[in-house]
Amino acid sequence: MIKIFYPPFQEPTWDLNGAVANDVQMNLVIILVSSSFGYVGNGVYCTFVGVCNTNRGGCHPLATCIENTAITGTYRECRCPSGYTGSGEGPNGCLQTAGLTCDNNPCRHGTCLPSGQSFRCVCSPGYLGTLCDQEEIDVCFSSPCENGGTCVRTANSFRCICPAPYEGPTCAERGGSCGGHIVGTNGTIQFPEAGTAYDHMMSCAWVITVPPGKVINITFDRFDLEHGGNCEFDFLQINDGPNAGSRVIDRFCGEVMQSKSLVSTHNHVYLWFQSDKTVAHTGFFLRWTAVEPFCGGLLNTSEYGSVNSPGYPGKYPVNRTCEWMVRVPFGKRIQFHFATLQIESHPNCSYDYLKVYDGPANTDPVIGLYCTTVTPAPLTTSGHEARVLFHSDESVQDFGFHITYAAQPSKPHLLFFFGYNSWVQGCGGIFTTPSGTIRSPNFPDVYENNLNCEWLIRIHPDNRLMLTFKEFSLEHHQNCSFDYLEVFTFRSIQTDNSLVQGGFRIEYKTICGGVYSELTGMLSSPYYPESYPAHAQCIYDIRLEPGYLVNVTFHFMEIEEHQDCRYDFLEVRDGESEDSPLIGQLCGINTPENIISTYNFLWMKFETDGSVQNRGFYAQYEAIEIGCGGVLTDPVGQLSSPRHPDRYPHSMTCSWYLKAPTNHIIRLTFTSFELEHDSSCQYDYILVQDLDGTEIGKFCGNRKPPALTSMDSSIFVKFVTDASVARDGFTANYEFLDASQACGGTFYRESGVIKSPGYPNRYPHNAHCIWILKGQNHRQITLNITSFELEEHQNCRYDYLEIRNGEYESSPLAGKYCGTDILKAITSHSNVMRLEFKTDNSMSSRGFEIYFDSSATGCGARLTSPRGSIVSPNYPQSYPYSADCEWLIQTSAGSLISISIVDVDIEEHQQCLYDYLQGKPTTEYFAKSPILPIVRLVSDHSVSREGFRLEWRILGCGSDIHNKASGTISSPNYPNGYPFETACYWHISYPPGNQVELTIDAMDMEGDFECGYDYLRVYGGEDAQAPRLLNLCTHITSPQLVVSHGNHMFIEFNSDHSISRRGFSATFRRKTNGCGGWFKASESMIMSPNYPNPYTFNDDCDWLIEVDPSHLINLEFYEFDLPEAVNDTKGYVAVSFFF
């Protein structure tokens, strides 16, 4: 009798399986050993009426019983009402929440722990529930495991650990039983019991079931049945499915399955054992386990074969995906024949399908897609590889497919030629030489239609291959769907039946060496320890991260001997390319000493000729960590002092080599900087150099260096510390810039060239570039303009180049240029110049090319702008020793100048005997002459400081000039353009009896009809209330002359806020004849002496009025008051016209 125990809330089910041709008789008695909620009856027959309909489902009287059959058929939940807490089960399942504390020890069989305003119970073993008032059911209490089995509690049930030879859920079955249904993920079957022989005329069946989605792996530890040729006596038959009608995997007898395995295609297997009436053996012992399904694989063993769906000829399983890689010998194609094809049908093959790719990858073209029961025609690939994919979904199953395949020759027939530098005129071939040439068929004539050619190049596994396409001409198509050449590990050329072209010619050669970036590695000559080949060239490129050096240790060296290593040799260079410094050229049999690189790169070339071949060399490299320095080739990056932001170590040197691609420059920007300070930077410092060794800059202290820009594609950065003071160090970012598009930069060098972006092509719109040029101390910079073409405008309002004498936007203006008008050479005041280039969004021109040179010595300058700044040479770095610089401000006579010192740091001395700044920098000065020495810097040969920076501006212009025989007046900043919104007044006077004669020598001002914007006005008196003699603007081509009527003249110059021109320049002198004068102007006014006061007696005045040729003079009297003449004895005015 078999006892079957089921815990509460479990619904019992049974699978009854009998052996083939046997009847099964079972008497079943069900006894409920523990009541289950929801059932009513007599214990033998029960009826389910609902869990909550019997005894309230075991819930507390106040609780609500809620059924949830979605979890199990008898699941229910007991919920306490509001104001109560607990599990809701049993008489104590709901307790009022008010006043729940541990004072009254509410936990029946446990420990009470306070929890906020409530509590929680920690139950003793064997109890559960909110108040530990429910006894935990022990499913092992009734000892369900028989025959000495051990009961182990699980989450919702139990399991039995059975002693030998018992088995089964409760250890009730003795091992060796005949048949049964076994469900689980693993197990064993032994038949008969160990040490016995099976009986005659036995027929036993076992069914093994594992979870859906799994298959069964069966391994035979022991197999001993009666032997028979066709297993017609005693046998074990295994079916791939749940019953005897499933596909037969095979029938086994004898000892054929001893220590062997098989795998099902479904989650069921059916095992049928049968013995006859004669010989008996010891039977079998097998282990089984559930495994993930697997199907497909690589089929490349011969020129023919077959592919079957999983489980064929039975139905394939659901949710299965299988992939086969089919490969036949190189140079042939694959032809598939479909013997059987039965796959669930669908118009788009969206459910179950068979797919064939024309190649080994799932990116190759699909040449067949099937989901049908109709047998298709044979299918042929274009090459020697194919990918076959089968997929089934979770629903309908069918009998699948059986496909055979065979290799077919390519068309046309392959021609094979071997030998050094050989080539193939035919279609396809196999190459085994170190180098060679591949041509399309009939090259250089056109190839044929419908070709399918494959070439295979086989080289030594340690070598790599380089293909060079010398000529190439195939039919064009956007996706290369017609004629094409593919390069793979194994691929081909294929042509269609339409257009043909000239084909291709490819040269190949083997390459050795490689790029090494690991911290350690091995280096050897080709084929080592065998002899290296002739005509080899191997490049070993070791590239470590910055902060490491390369250390190469040679363990073996045997290269053809020669005094100069002329034939076979190993060349070692200290860098990343063949252009790097040569360390040595090695040959012979002597093992070299270790080689250590300067940076994190090391470049080696092994080259052989065609004569002697030796074993070569074997070496090992390793990285040496130094913490700083290296070769930097990434387009952007950062370098920093060791340990930054902590203090850097003493007595160290770090070297960085920044190498950009050709036609690029490098911009280096310091983001933090704090080194030991010294005026000459001889202790701790940063040194930046161009590739030719030109010093770009040397920096120390805590003043952050400006952004630096190289003139070519490489720079060196060197960081040096001594044994004393240490600071926090530095960080700097770098970037590589396209030299043709570079815009701005700071240059510390003696000479170079500056070009507008894109030069000599047109510069871009909305560009804004600033170049700072810095020469050495005591030097001046000269700009040589070789080409200049910007958008033209009279005030350079749109596109322009602005040049200043100094580093700042407020530095003295040297000039603002546009169009094509610019000085050919411009020299700076000191060792610093600023060039600012701006463009708008309209017109564009070729731009400019400017060469600069700072080899000339000197400092100081003549300043002509209305405002600006003056800085000491090299400011804010230390000014040079033994300097004597003088700056002169040139302005209009009588201009008011304001000067203020912004920064000053000069060697101190009580009488300023060593270094000093001389001038009147803190007062306003009224200029009496157009050129005024204003600032002078003198330094000696010892201490040097940062120097000074001062700003100056002209507060106004004009002056009061009295009794000066002659002089000059001009608009501010003449001839470099007057400033906007400026008003200047000059009052020129002489003693009575004299006149003022003014000659306007040159004038270029904004013009309009009424001279209402910018103008020059001349009055014949002490101020603007006097009669106006002249009102001029625009441009004059010849001098204009005007004479005052008395001994005073007032001159007014005015500019508005917009257009600015060069201005004017005029000279004045005393005229002693008292009245009259020579007027040479287009218009003016004359009047009697002392007008409007009475003239004096005995005056005799002559006025000569002259205008340009081809013009007439219109003379108009505004006021006339003379007494009538009597016998010509009174005053009169006589007018004479002449040509």
Automatic annotation (TrEMBL):
<feature type="disulfide bond">
    <location>
        <begin position="102"/>
        <end position="112"/>
    </location>
</feature>
<feature type="domain" description="CUB">
    <location>
        <begin position="427"/>
        <end position="487"/>
    </location>
</feature>
<dbReference type="InterPro" id="IPR000859">
    <property type="entry name" value="CUB_dom"/>
</dbReference>
<keyword id="KW-0245">EGF-like domain</keyword>
<feature type="domain" description="CUB">
    <location>
        <begin position="743"/>
        <end position="855"/>
    </location>
</feature>
<feature type="domain" description="CUB">
    <location>
        <begin position="859"/>
        <end position="918"/>
    </location>
</feature>
<keyword id="KW-1015">Disulfide bond</keyword>
<feature type="disulfide bond">
    <location>
        <begin position="295"/>
        <end position="322"/>
    </location>
</feature>
<feature type="domain" description="CUB">
    <location>
        <begin position="1075"/>
        <end position="1139"/>
    </location>
</feature>
<dbReference type="GO" id="GO:0005509">
    <property type="term" value="F:calcium ion binding"/>
</dbReference>
<feature type="domain" description="CUB">
    <location>
        <begin position="957"/>
        <end position="1071"/>
    </location>
</feature>
<dbReference type="InterPro" id="IPR035914">
    <property type="entry name" value="Sperma_CUB_dom_sf"/>
</dbReference>
<dbReference type="Pfam" id="PF00008">
    <property type="entry name" value="EGF"/>
</dbReference>
<protein>
    <submittedName>
        <fullName>Cubilin</fullName>
    </submittedName>
</protein>
<feature type="domain" description="EGF-like">
    <location>
        <begin position="98"/>
        <end position="133"/>
    </location>
</feature>
<feature type="disulfide bond">
    <location>
        <begin position="123"/>
        <end position="132"/>
    </location>
</feature>
<feature type="domain" description="CUB">
    <location>
        <begin position="178"/>
        <end position="291"/>
    </location>
</feature>
<feature type="domain" description="CUB">
    <location>
        <begin position="295"/>
        <end position="408"/>
    </location>
</feature>
<dbReference type="InterPro" id="IPR000742">
    <property type="entry name" value="EGF"/>
</dbReference>
<dbReference type="InterPro" id="IPR001881">
    <property type="entry name" value="EGF-like_Ca-bd_dom"/>
</dbReference>
<dbReference type="InterPro" id="IPR013032">
    <property type="entry name" value="EGF-like_CS"/>
</dbReference>
<dbReference type="Pfam" id="PF12661">
    <property type="entry name" value="hEGF"/>
</dbReference>
<feature type="disulfide bond">
    <location>
        <begin position="162"/>
        <end position="171"/>
    </location>
</feature>
<keyword id="KW-0677">Repeat</keyword>
<feature type="domain" description="CUB">
    <location>
        <begin position="512"/>
        <end position="624"/>
    </location>
</feature>
<feature type="domain" description="CUB">
    <location>
        <begin position="628"/>
        <end position="737"/>
    </location>
</feature>
<feature type="disulfide bond">
    <location>
        <begin position="957"/>
        <end position="984"/>
    </location>
</feature>
<feature type="domain" description="EGF-like">
    <location>
        <begin position="136"/>
        <end position="172"/>
    </location>
</feature>
<dbReference type="Pfam" id="PF00431">
    <property type="entry name" value="CUB"/>
</dbReference>
